[in-house]
Design goal:
This protein is of the alpha+beta class. The protein has two domains: 5-54, no CATH class; 76-223, no CATH class. The protein is 45% helix and 14% strand. The chain has nine helices and seven strands. The chain has a three-stranded mixed beta sheet with strand order 5-6-7. Strands 1-2 form a two-stranded antiparallel ribbon. A two-stranded antiparallel ribbon has the order 3-4. Strand 1 and strand 2 form a beta hairpin.
């Protein structure tokens, strides 16, 4: 098989392809142009093209969503799994995430001279929400442990992503929003409301806990940042 020849875009001569370098340019048909190595600037241009290929392309920005507490340092796919319904893929937050957000919101309001009424006032509620969530109006997701019957019921849904179906089949768990729980007929077991004296005891334990100290510290830091940001705006 004879060696491949090509037309040099500089001199127009028919030469061996091995005697030419790519110029980085294209002709009117979109075909790449090559030039003889002996022409001025051809070798330098070829070196530049080679270096340019070594530069890694800038990765596309991932779609932003609420990163659930406790998952900040894990891969994005795990963060996504922890903050979305596995069937309809709507974004939400776990009950733990929601509870922590509520505690921080109340702590910020209390430190700013407000009370629990902020939870029923949309404007005030927005003011004291933790900065790392879009809002408490996101759906609350339930991570449900499956039994033999509900596992079979979950496995018939082909629209669930394959990696999530693997988790469902192997781990026996599924995360769903309230609407999809009804759709799949897979629901969280009902939990009896604790007696008033138990609620009072739990409240007393929380008031003296390290968790409350951590929540108060987060709230104090966020209020300071909010105050600083408002000053910069004005």
């Amino acid at each position: 098989m004879p060696p491949k020849t090509i037309t040099c875009c500089e001199c127009g001569e028919q030469v061996l392809k091995s005697q030419t370098y790519a110029t980085g340019k294209k002709d009117e048909n979109g075909d790449p142009l090559r030039a003889c190595k002996i022409h001025e600037g051809v070798i330098e241009q070829a070196e530049k093209l080679k270096e340019r290929k070594k530069i890694k392309p800038v990765p596309k920005k991932e779609k932003k969503f609420n990163k659930p507490w406790g998952f900040e340092d894990v891969p994005l796919v795990v963060q996504w799994n922890a903050s979305h319904c596995w069937l309809c893929e709507s974004e939400g937050m776990s009950r733990q995430h929601h509870a922590q957000a509520m505690l921080i919101t109340l702590a910020k309001a209390k430190q700013d001279g407000q009370n629990a009424d902020v939870l029923f006032d949309p404007k005030k509620l927005k003011k004291y929400l933790p900065r790392d969530i879009k809002g408490l109006d996101l759906v609350v997701l339930d991570l449900i442990t499956l039994n033999e019957e509900t596992l079979k019921r979950a496995q018939i849904w082909k629209r669930i992503k394959r990696d999530l179906m693997d988790i469902i089949s192997i781990g026996g768990i599924i995360q769903l929003c309230p609407e999809c729980q009804d759709r799949m007929d897979i629901k969280v077991p009902e939990i009896k409301t604790p007696k008033p004296e138990v609620m009072y005891m739990l409240g007393s334990i929380y008031e003296d806990s390290q968790m409350k100290k951590n929540i108060d510290t987060i709230a104090k830091g966020e209020l300071a940042e909010d105050f600083k940001r408002n000053l910069e705006k004005n």
